[in-house]
Design brief:
With 234 residues, the chain is of the alpha+beta class. It contains six helices and eight strands. The longest helix is centred in the first third of the chain and has 24 residues. 29% of the residues are buried.
Amino acid sequence: MRILIVLFGLLFLCNCEDKQSNQKKTTSPSEINKTEALPKKDTSQVQKREFPLLTDENALYFFEEYDKKHKEDKVRITTDFGSIDIQLFPETKYHRANFIFLTKQHYFDNSQFYRVVKNFVIQGGSSDEAELFKKRNHIGRYLLPPDTKKGFKHHRGVVSMPSSEIENAYKMATPYQFFIVQNPNGAYHLDGEYTAFGKVISGMDVVDKIADQPTDDAEWPLHNVYIRKIEVID
């Protein structure tokens, strides 16, 4: 009899433990709902700007500060005709800083030399392409003041910045465009009007090849001349 009582007690205790164990493992419907109701954070679309949206009001201050921290002064333009290496002038700090900034933002990549005038200039950096338009909207719309009193002349190979297409008395420059003087005799009639901010140190033969391309009446090459990329070099 004692044995039966002991066995019955053990079976009772085991049954109770199983019930407690099952109760611990069971999640109530309310707990399930709470877990499923927790919002999931989607950070895929969150992008912090690394720089402010540039305007005529803040661009000079931005490039003043950018010039202090980014001293790079050489870039390489890669085209289907070869590479062009450019030395930027530190004396024209706003224009140098602007060009380095746009280079690091990959603005010029897959843009074009959209204006070619043999024995004068090749001009690039802007066009009506949708991708460039999106890049400009992201960076901002601003102009740069001319800086023509540093003594730099428009010799062959000099890199300069054209004035804005918008008429303005101060010859404010459009920061997204540049041109390279291809004329063997220079283009000195541009001195005092446009800011020379660099010079070609390697690849003038590539500039000449691009200048030889046939164009339409609007001076646009009949076959697109792409700037595959511009990158900072040592």
